[in-house]
């Protein structure tokens, strides 16, 4: 039952083959068995069981709320959840319990979803491996497959097997691992520069980044306001479409959401790609791209072509400036957004009472890790009066050029771009941590962050595992 699609499980619930409570208990049992993955920061067992019982009552009365009623889901721990601790995997917010639900969380609950818990991440979603949160790194479920163990035995040279596991990617690694390990049927992530798609690719699940404004950001603790998007992780594309249909639409609490009504998202039973024009960006043929990913990319393009689609090479000429532009804009907005965590209103507060300035400094030193502090410092540097024009304003201009590249390609008749997600498959933890966070993020976001700056939709199903 845990390996079925949302529609299949929903049908089973409606037909009485399994009850929401039984389904919830199965997932809770699996969460306990896979605790070593460190996918969850908080397991909301009591809340989940209560929600499952309420769903069971609705089914008995024939009042199902839809395909998500009674379905176990998980939420990344940077979405506000009423009565459940929300930490962003940071000492700064340990013990913080929001008084409200994020809009996307509330929409899931309104449809009868059962909240299993809050998933692990890089601190404040700043990272590409889910290795930099205060609750420890997330382990990729595929690390424990027979295939991977055999592969590593051939390469290992005195390595500690306990540290030889694969990373999940980040920053939504906990959500990806939770879905891949069958502890829930869908999970929310967030995507600023690839944080949903990256771990989806590494964990062999579907990661979907909606267009900016299609889904409300209200209640998502911000990293970069102009790029953040709630993401969806599921085990098949149809499931992602179901969840998107329930989350998309205008939210009066988020002025950036679209105003027009959103039609239901339905996928055809048979996809005819004969009239589809698929673009392959030549700039994405990076020298660092692994032979394995390059091979899968080529196979995917050939598959579309064999089914009648037109596959052509296209150009996104400002790609080489994209990651640098992203770094400037990302850290600048981080510096602004993190200013709210000062120890006065909520979150961590140090015991120093010498002066307000000393309290600020000590609180932020204790509450933030090196990664967050580093991005704050970089952002403040770019926003200095003497640097503002040369860095932030120029980066905004380059951002416009990057967006125009995509517009020009789509206006030329291209329907969709087919690109890799990361440079390589998931790597072992010991190999991953050889590089610092900034370097790793720059490498891992190379193919993904441009669409966040452009505001476009990007989705991926990657089963490289």
From TrEMBL:
Its main location: mitochondrion. It is an enzyme of class 6 (ligase). Residues 25-145, 166-455 form the Amidase domain. One of its GO terms (molecular function) is glutaminyl-tRNA synthase (glutamine-hydrolyzing) activity. Signal peptide: none annotated. It holds the Pfam family Amidase. It is found in: Mitochondrion. The active site is at 76 (charge relay system), 171 (charge relay system), 195 (acyl-ester intermediate). Keywords: ATP-binding, Ligase, Mitochondrion, Nucleotide-binding, Protein biosynthesis. The keyword Nucleotidyltransferase does not apply. One of its GO terms (cellular component) is glutamyl-tRNA(Gln) amidotransferase complex. It comes from the Eukaryota. Its EC number is 6.3.5.7. It catalyses: L-glutamyl-tRNA(Gln) + L-glutamine + ATP + H2O = L-glutaminyl-tRNA(Gln) + L-glutamate + ADP + phosphate + H(+). GO terms for biological process: glutaminyl-tRNAGln biosynthesis via transamidation; mitochondrial translation. Belongs to the amidase family. GatA subfamily. Subunit of the heterotrimeric GatCAB amidotransferase (AdT) complex, composed of A (QRSL1), B (GATB) and C (GATC) subunits. Allows the formation of correctly charged Gln-tRNA(Gln) through the transamidation of misacylated Glu-tRNA(Gln) in the mitochondria. The reaction takes place in the presence of glutamine and ATP through an activated gamma-phospho-Glu-tRNA(Gln). This is Glutamyl-tRNA(Gln) amidotransferase subunit A, mitochondrial. It comes from Zalophus californianus (California sealion).
